[in-house]
User: What shape does this take?
Amino acid sequence: MLIKKAEDIRSSEITPKSLYLNRRKFLAEAAMAGAAAAIGVGLKETISPSTSVLAGNKIDGVKKSSLSTTETVTPYNDVTHYNNYYEFGTEKDEPAEMAKNFRTRPWKVKIEGQVEKKQELDIDTILKMAPPEERIYRHRCVEGWSIVVPWVGFSLSELIKRVNPTSKARYVEFTSLFDLTRMPGQRRQVLDWPYVEGLRMDEAMNPLALLCFGMYGEELPNQDGAPLRIVLPWKYGFKSSKAIVRIRFVEKQPLNSWNISAPMEYGFYANVNPNVDHPRWSQAKERRLGEFLKRPTLMFNGYGDQVASLYNGMDLKKNY
Ligand SMILES: Nc1nc2c(c(=O)[nH]1)N[C@H]1C(S)=C(S)[C@@H](COP(=O)(O)O)O[C@H]1N2
Ligand SMILES: [Mo]
Assistant: This one.
C-alpha cells in the first residue's frame, strides 16, 4: 500500500508473482491432499497449523459462532505467509520471518479517554472477559486479495461494556505497539508510527466487530497480530489493527494511519465497496488466496445485512 510507481500499478493488473507462487503452492497442496485421500489421511492434516513450525498454543473451550461463513477456509500457511504488517517489513513474506521472535508477554493494554475508570489491563485478564468463539470471516485487503479465516475471539462490545465509556465517547481509537527494538520495520518512515486506527462507537459495538487473539483454534501467530488485534470483516483489512496496546474512547473522529499517509486513497470508514474504486485501481474484484480466478467483491464484503444500517443516509462515495 505504499505510494506506487506506474510500473507497480500495471503489475497489480496481472498476476503478482507472490500470488503466482501461491498458486503453485496451492496446486502442490491440492496434489498432497489428493495423495492423502488416496492413502486415507484427512485433508485437514495436510493444512492444519500443527504441520507448521509457527504452531501456537491451542485455545480451549472455543465455541462455534452463528456469524461464521460456510465458505472454504484459506489454508493456514497462506494466511500466515502473506501478511501486511509494516512494523515487520513491507513485503508480504517478511512478517512471518521478522516477527518470529516477537515477545507478546508480558503485555498490557491501556484503556483511556472517555471512560469511567482509566486503567491498564493485562492481556490475560482481557482474554478471560468472555468465552472464546470461532468466527469464520471473509477478510478483504484494499489491495485486492482476500482470505477466509477461522478467527478466535469475542465481540469487541464485551470489552467496551466492561470498561464503561462515558456518554461523551463517540469514537474508539486503537493504537498498536511502538517499539523500535522489537518492531524493526518502524525504523523506516513508511508510516507515521505507531499504527493507529479508529471506529465510530456504533461500529465498534456491532456484534461482528471482533476482539481477536487466535486463529485456527490456536493463539494468533505473531505475524497476524498477536497477542491482540481487531477484525472487522465488512471493512478493508487496514482497519483491523494488530498488536494493540491502547484503546482510547474519544469525542472526535480519530486519525488513522493510512488516511494520514494518503488521504485521497484511504478514508476513515474503509467499508468494502465494489462501486468505489481506489484512485489507482478498481475494487470490483478480488483474488482469494489459493485461487487463480478473481471473484466479484461484495458490498460490505457480503455483511450488508448486519452493517448497512450503520451507514443509512451517508454518501459512501464521499465517506470511503
Ligand atoms: N499494526 C498494524 N496493523 C495492521 C497492519 C499493519 O501494517 N500494522 N496492516 C493492516 C492491513 S493493510 C491488513 S490487510 C491486515 C492484514 O492482516 P493479516 O496479515 O492477518 O491477514 O492487517 C492490518 N493491520
Ligand atoms: Mo490491507
Summary: The chain is about 20% helix and 20% strand. The pocket of MTE (ligand 1) is lined by residues 1, 83-87, 141, 176, 195, 224-225, 237-238, 240-243 (CB under 6 Å).
